[in-house]
Structure formats: structure tokens, C-alpha cells
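Hey Z.,

So I finally got round to the calcium ion thing we talked about over coffee. Here's the setup:
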Amino acid sequence: MKKLIIFTLLLASTTLFAQKIILERIEPPFWWVGMHNSELQLLVYGKNISQSEVAIHSETIKLKKVHHVENKNYLFLDIEIAENTQPGNFEIIFSKNETDLTFQYELKQKTEQKRGFSSADFIYLIMPDRFSNGNPKNDSPEKISEKADRNNPDGRHGGDIQGIINHLDYIQQLGITALWLNPTVENNNPNYSYHGYAITDFYKTDPRSGNDSEYKKLSDELHKKNMKLIMDMIFNHCSINHWWMNDIPMNDWTNTNSEFRSNFRGSTVPDIHASNDDIKRMTEGWFDKHMPDLNQNNPFLAEYLIQNSIWWIEFAGLDGIRMDTYPYPFKEFMTKWTERVHKEYPDITLLGETWLQKPAFTAYFSENNSISGNYNSGLNSVTDFPLYYATRDAFNQQDGWSEGLASIYYILAQDFLYGNPYNNLIFLDNHDLDRYYTSVGKDIKKMKMGLAVLLTMRGIPMLYYGTELLTEGEEHKGHGYIRTDFPGGWKEDKINAFNEEERTFEQNDSYNYIKTIATWRKTSKPVTEGKFMHFVPENNVYVYFRYTNNEAVMFILNNHPSEKRLINTNRFSEILNNYSTGINILTKEITDIKKSIEIQSKSAIILELKK
Ligand code: CA
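And the result:
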């Protein structure tokens, strides 16, 4: 008797709520016809939505399966879009007790465009909150918890997408061809929200950065200038404030718990001696107690993330993706991701952040390498941290068997580990590292040596915003100090460094040094497409060449603190025999290369060789 009463009560309450069908989200919010993959999985979210029947009445669009999961507020719909489907809306009908709710789902036409970036590019990394405030009205939106406060180094400062659009000429004139922005999707967190790596909505541009159409506008403006856009994505974690964390779809949507932290040791993934405990901490531990570790072994989450990346590529016309914390998610899933993206967009460049100290670890995560056995990531480009450490330290050290210039030499001598080291992303600093000018003790000579290496070395060069202005900053003081505001990005700034006249002599010297080499670099086939050959450093001098079948560039570094060097060119005859002179691309002077070349202390020479 008791049981019957409870049953009746339950039924009554169900009937009460059944009057209304609540639909809060469908993601992806729209899709495209003409995709290589005809399948689409929609995440549907709304109070008790799983109690609804779902139907699609269309000749070309088929509802293949409706998935009910642990949480009754979710449905996952498998949809097949036939090849002959025309762009436009189709109806998804949700029914419950004679009540219907119709959702118009839009299918746009997929566009065909050239995608990808390469060693012919020169990338500029921008922390969007810290570059330029193009729209002060969006600094502190009502529904966003953290408001702007420029006095707080870790606070939100107001920089946005419009600010970047406003300064594309400045960036292009420096010789840049591609932009990578730290994430601009919503990070609605109470504090420390400016960096963008704690996502609260994967499908929405943060209102303080702008909106989705402004992001698309940035991409369009870049493409008009023959420049490219690389989007920063994170599959490893989201924010504890992500909308789904309050109402998790399935218990295994995230891994472990906030007390179980990552050991941040990417080395455990390739390590043949690694303990299961260490591997589990690396792949399932939380990156931060505010950043839940996403479980990409859950097939619905896996599909959600893959589709999200494809959605942004198609929506914004991306040329590449920079994937944050690449070694942290399950590697099998990440390989599935690169395969799926490349099936849809064969030419797009996928770059992974592989923050590891040794070339073997970095190479392990790059595609077609010679060491990872059956595991082939399909990742086109990796961040060359080993080379970063070498170029950071080499000019501060006395040359020795493995110190100074030899440290650069030994990193490059290990390129046999990579499938294609020419695709490595190379850099002198970034948003997580000491500013390069600070690393080299504010010595402009050392700074220029680093910049010259960056722009002629094998790989895809990347410059962190403000490095061209000799910006200083030490990471150990806090990330806010290496992510300072670009001077002149805010109307109230006393100095506007976007203007040549307002920059110091030293800043213009640095800016013009980069500009000269980067502008020349664009036209240099040996540097952008050619091979690399180096000679073992001797007597404080390191010489390398970039070359094609009929062109070559000679690069010379003298790392001695005070002595110039006279280099006998005999040693380099295997390249130099084909040439008689070299044009110094910085001074435009013609240099005779037949016998010897003189180089001042702490300097670099770049010679375009002539027959
Ligand atoms: Ca703003």
C-alpha cells in the first residue's frame, strides 16, 4: 500500500513538470553541410530533457540514435547529414505528453580555403587582455564576475580583440605573418581570469575579449592582409566554473578530484620505466585545483572536444591550432583528434605545447618521429623548449665543450629524433617564461644574437608581444609581470609605443633589427624552405648555413665577450665553393668570403651568398 502511494505521488509530480519542455543548450550551436564526416553528435541540455521523445523529419537528415546518460538533464543525439543536404535550417522536435518544442538547427555551407602555417611564417603571440583596449565598454560586463582592474597584475586589464584589429599594421610592419592569441573563449572566473586557460564555455568568446563575430572579423582582417590566425585550445582541463561542472553529464566526465594533482611530468608518457602511479598523476591529475581534468576516454566528451575544434576552424577560418598541455590528455585520444581534424582539413597545422626539457621527449610527441614505435601523434609541430633553454643560456655562458654555443649545437645535433624538425616552433620567450631581454641581462648585443638565431634557424619562429620593445619581466615574481600591458594599448597610457616617435632609441633599434631580418626572411628561400647545415663551434664561433640547390645563407655567431674573430672560410668550402661573395643583410655591405671573414665580439652576421 505504501509503495503505491509513493508511485502515485511521483507520477503526479512528473505530470506537473511535464507541461513544459526546457531546452537550455544545443552544442555545437550550428554546423555545416559539405563536411567530409557526415556524422554529428549534439549535446542537448535542459531540465529533464531526457524525458522527451526526439524526432527529425527530413529526407536527408537522419536521427540515428538518442543517447540517454546518467544525468537526466542531458541527451546526446547522433545525426547523419547526407551529402546532398542543402544549407538551411532543419527541425529537431522534442515531445513530452502531447507538448512539442521545435528547435531550428542551422546548417551552413562549408567553405573551401587554404589553411596551414609553416617555416615560411613568423608568428606573433599576444596575450589579448594585455595588448590593447579597443573597446573600453566591454571591460566589465554585468554578468561576468571579474571586472577590470589595471592595478592588479593578475587582474583583468581590458585588452580585447578590437584592440588587436586596430594594430594589425604595426604587427605586419614588424614582418609578422601569423597571430597566435592566448585563449579568448569565455573564462567567467572570479579571479585570475585574464589568461584564458580556464574555460567556462567552449563555444563562446569571452565578452571582455569581444564576441564570436569579432573573433571572425579578426580572422577576416588577417586574411585580407595575407596573414594567418592560430587559435589556442585546451582539451586537458576546463574551469571549475564551467557551466557543466554544476550539473555534470556523467560521473566519469572528469578524472579524479581536486586533491589529486598532476605531477606535470610529461616524461612519464614515453618513459619505459614509469610507474602506473606517476602516469596516472600525469594524465588524470588536476592541472590546478580550479581546473578539473577532463576524461577524454568518455566517448561523449571526446566527441564534444573534437567537434568543438572543427567548429572553430570552420567558423573562424583558422589556419592552425595551438593545443595547450599536449602531453597531459590521454595520447590515444589526442591522436584520434589529429586524425579527425586532418581528415576534414588536410592542410591545417596542428601545434602542440610540449613543455619538456630534452629533445627525445619533445620529439616523441611529434608526427613521424624515429623513436615512438607504434605511437604516431599526427601532430605537425611541437614547441621546441630544448632549443629555447639553449638560446636562453648560451650567450650568458663561457663557451666550453657543452656550454655556450655548444649547447645550441648539441640540441640541433639531435634533430634526427624528429620526423620534421623544420616544423618545430622556435622562440626566445613566451607567456610562461622570463622575458628574453631579462634573460640576457638586458644586454642588447646578446638580445640581437638571440633574435638573429630565431629568424634564421630551422623551425617556425615565434615572437612574444612586447619582446620587440625590450620588455622586461621575471616569471618568478608572478605571471602578471611577464604579461604586462603593451604601452599605448590604452588611451590613458603616457607613452604609445605603437608610434615610432614615442619609442626609445633602444626600442627602435630592436624593432628595426627584427623588422629588417623578418622582412628579408620572407623572400629568402634558403631560410623559409631550405635545409640546415652547421659546423661544430670552435674558438667562440658557430657557423651554420641555410641552403637550397642553388641558394644559400651563411650565419656566423661570435660569443666571445670582448674579442673579435677572424674566420678562415676554408673550413666551409663544401657550401662556399659555389659562391664568391656575401651580402650582409643588415648593413647591405658586400663581403668577400674567399679567404676569411671578420666578426666582432658578441655579434651575429647573416650573409646572403652570391655566385
Ligand atoms: Ca576592452
